[in-house]
Design brief:
The structure holds 2 protein chains of 2 kinds. Chain A is an all-alpha fold. Chain A is flat and about 70 Å long. Chain B is an alpha/beta fold. In chain B, strands 8-9-10-3-11-12 form a 6-stranded mixed sheet, with helices on both faces. In chain B, helix 6 links the parallel strand 9 and strand 10. Chain B is globular, with a radius of gyration of 19 Å. The chains are: A mainly alpha, B alpha/beta.
């Protein structure tokens, strides 16, 4: 099996448009799911029992359904309920709904992991609830949530491959197109896998950088004068 | 007549039906230093937390310089809880120092101290900075102002926490076992800062296990047991001629612990 350059010149443009679409739709879903997930995490920690029950039920449902089934439901079932979505919209809706639940749990867990004494110190000082959240809780929840959030968002891009079953022109769909026209599955799928890996690796590097910055206050000083002054 | 800085009236607190405080009446005069001692579980810390309503009392009232704290009187004389923002403003007048310091780890020592004046009181940045720098100087930590809490020893962290409480210029400071989480050799530096405060005109309520410190620094020593005040006396009188059997018992236990320590230490 040898690599055919002409084959590449045919497949590459197709794969490129697919890859660009994957990045675009994945980014859109990531932003939406993060915003909605943050909102849902507040609902999970609400003091109103009804709100908490609603939020928990939503999370339980989303955790129990395979994302592929959600994509199919959004594309094939919603129209019968009077909501017809284009393939990209249906796919984006499904994965947004799915990842919103997971992101909400990650944020909720991180907020709950901030020691209660941290808030007490601020409350005892007379700080308002909003400021306690913005200045004490969230800055400390951020480094805790970050690894989980980054893992979820990187995974999200790979899950967009599911959209190929409803003919969304993303990377996997375009790869299948290219394979069916070139009859060279080995080379083309290898290229697609490489593209997914490269994008994930890039995000991984960015994630590590963010995590490093977010935890700067936990590290010892580099040039601490040893016991010179108290 | 002098109005007490803090006066509690029949303060009771129950958790899940278990009574932790069984009616505490205590007055602390301006400038007075009151040390509260007693066995674990006697309700000392709960009492402090009820004063600034970190955990509101089940019944009873707190007065801060004569003003009802965290509650308000309505026409029928019924006392209703205050709106949250009013309570926030009242809380600014009571400082608190915690057993576990509770410094904000993502802020430097200076930022921790500045937070109150700047964010809670809304003072300009430069003014808040001056206040914080002066206070860090006062607790002997000028050189450490740009360190994060994780880069400071426990004793240093607690001194920063004391500076943070002082930055609000509170009318009273509550100390909740401020040295209990410290390595023995770091206790002294914190007690020294507190002693300097006590020598000034700071009004302090100190829950502590450091009997020696309490005897030396306090104007009054209060023994709590099972949610009640057992004895409330000037420290010399408390130690030399306790009125209650329970106080004698407590002193004996504390002293024998000290002796056991003295015997076993090199």
């Amino acid at each position: 099996m040898n690599f055919d350059l002409e084959l590449l010149s045919y497949a590459l443009p197709l794969l490129w448009t697919g890859a660009v679409f994957t990045v675009q739709i994945g980014t859109a879903i990531a932003i939406l799911a993060t915003l909605l997930g943050a909102a849902l995490s507040f609902a999970l920690g609400s003091s109103l029992p009804g709100v908490v029950i609603g939020a928990r039920s939503y999370v339980a449902i989303m955790r129990g359904i395979p994302p592929l089934v959600l994509v199919l439901i959004c594309f094939y079932v919603l129209p019968t309920l009077g909501l017809t979505l284009s393939p990209p919209m249906a796919g984006a809706a499904a994965l947004t709904a799915y990842f919103t639940a997971y992101i909400a749990i990650a944020i909720r867990g991180a907020v709950a992991a901030v020691a209660p004494g941290q808030q007490e110190a601020a409350v005892a000082l007379g700080m308002s609830r909003a400021k306690v959240l913005m200045r004490v809780v969230l800055p400390q929840a951020w480094p805790i949530a970050l690894p989980a959030l980054c893992g979820l968002l990187i995974g999200l891009f790979k899950e967009t491959a599911l959209f190929s079953v409803i003919s969304v022109p993303e990377l996997t769909f375009q790869t299948k197109q290219a394979v069916s026209r070139t009859y060279a599955p080995f080379e083309v799928y290898l290229l697609a896998a490489l593209a997914y890996w490269a994008w994930s690796a890039l995000l991984e590097v960015i994630a590590r950088g963010l995590e490093h910055r977010a935890t700067h206050f936990r590290r010892p000083r580099r040039s601490a004068p040893q016991g010179a002054q108290t | 007549m002098i109005i007490p800085a803090i006066r509690t009236e029949a303060l009771r607190k129950s958790f899940d039906g278990v009574e932790i405080l069984s009616g505490i009446d205590l007055s602390i005069m301006p400038g007075e230093v009151v040390c509260i001692v007693g066995p674990s579980g006697s309700g000392k810390s709960t009492f402090l937390r009820c004063i600034n309503r970190l955990s509101p009392a089940t019944s009873g009232h707190v007065y801060l310089n004569g003003e009802l704290f965290g509650e308000r009187e309505t026409e029928g004389g019924v006392v209703a809880p205050l709106q949250h923002f009013v309570l926030q403003r009242q809380r600014q007048r009571i400082g608190m120092v915690f057993q576990s310091f509770n410094l904000w780890p993502h802020r430097t020592a200076l930022e921790n101290v500045m937070e109150g004046p700047r964010v809670v009181q809304g003072k300009p940045l430069a003014e808040a900075r001056l206040i914080a720098e002066a206070l860090l100087e006062r607790v002997g930590l000028s050189q450490r102002r740009d360190y994060y809490p994780a880069q400071l020893s426990g004793g240093q962290q607690q001194r920063v926490a004391i500076a943070r409480a002082l930055a609000m210029k509170p009318e009273v400071i509550l100390f909740d076992e401020p040295t209990s989480a410290l390595d023995p050799e770091l206790v002294g530096e914190v007690l020294q800062v507190m002693q300097e405060l006590a020598a000034g005109d700071t009004t302090m309520i100190v829950v502590t296990h450091e009997i020696g410190f309490a005897v030396e620094v306090a104007d009054r020593l209060v023994l709590m047991d099972k949610g009640r005040i057992v004895e409330d006396a000037p420290p010399r009188q408390f130690v030399q001629a306790p009125q209650q059997e329970r106080s004698r018992q407590f002193l004996q236990q504390v002293m024998s612990r000290g002796m056991a320590w003295a015997r076993n230490s090199p």
